[in-house]
Amino acid sequence: MQKKRLGILTSGGDCPGLNAAIRAVVSHASLTYGWEVLGIPYGTRGLSGRKPPIELSTCDGRGVDPLLATGGTILGSASKGYSGESVEAILTGYEALGLNAIVAIGGDGSLRIVADLAERGGWNFIGIPKTIDNDVGLTESAIGFDTATNTVVDALQRLSSTAASHDRVMVVETMGRTAGHLALHSGIAGGADAILIPEVPYSIDSVCQKIHDLKILQQRHFALVVVAEGAKTLSGESRQYTDAQGNTRLRGIGDYISDGIYQRLGDRVEVRVTVLGHVQRGGMPSAFDRILASSFGRVAVDLLAAGKSGRVVVWRAGDVESVPISELCAHCPRLVDPQGSFLATARGLGTYLGEFSPVFERASAARLQQSELTASQV
Ligand code: F6P
Fold this sequence. Notes:
The chain is an alpha/beta fold.
């Protein structure tokens, strides 16, 4: 088989498992097919050639390959598309590197950008989905989601013991952008009493009702409220912030929920807020993320060897398949299904999950009023 030269890049927010995917691509391409693999620094902009490519080789075989267990990406990543490089510079750079194909590891935004460049430049291209948000369409899992879920669950375990020690309500803000997968899965696994996600509007009255019910009906004097950064009120409002560079960011929902609880139950509860932030993007990849990343990397190389291009590997029913990038993009972002099984499980556990209908909102306000009367008699 003709010796090929493969470029590999990581683009968008980093996550645990990226290096495991890089390791699988390099190992399979060089050991099985005798191909050369070049690491492209800092995502698509690295193709412009402004920074030299990174030589990648398989581990020298002594001990567990550090790539397998190291978080982040040894190639560096960029979250803002071309990051100031022109399309022409990138297309020229690809040619100058003498690449035969690209493997791009990214979220939906990054994969769209690389697919567009591949279209313009006539590149061979295979995508690998990664993001702790798990909002890439058509794949049940993206690299990074499982590890981030475990990270949030670990935090919830730690917070629940201190909440119980002080009879406090802990509001825990997670990442996830416009999707609630991370909050929902970690909330279920971490025993949250309320899980607020962008896909189901919430009412602070109902959150307070839940806190109240725990106290009155279950004699439990602490609570865990997990809130995704993009969660919205019934009127569709999320909490945003414009940073010094003019970027609008999702931020502040944890404090907003805490203030709302204090306004309603201030004399009866103590609330503390934990914003997990980029802790959720770090750490050693979980076993599942290592298996997912290694499987994705191996299949991506096999697809190129079979002459395939313009496809993205996806995880379905415990195995790797691939779909056309156009089809994948048409199903992004993949949001939590309000009628889906995970929400039904959380609901079955008595978790408050937001208002499934405005009627619930009125009923919860009435119940809160009623139970205030009860509380005053406690
Ligand atoms: O997409 C992954 C993610 O971590 C989101 O959950 C989060 O909103 C965003 O990236 C943060 O972006 P940045 O790393 O640029 O602050």
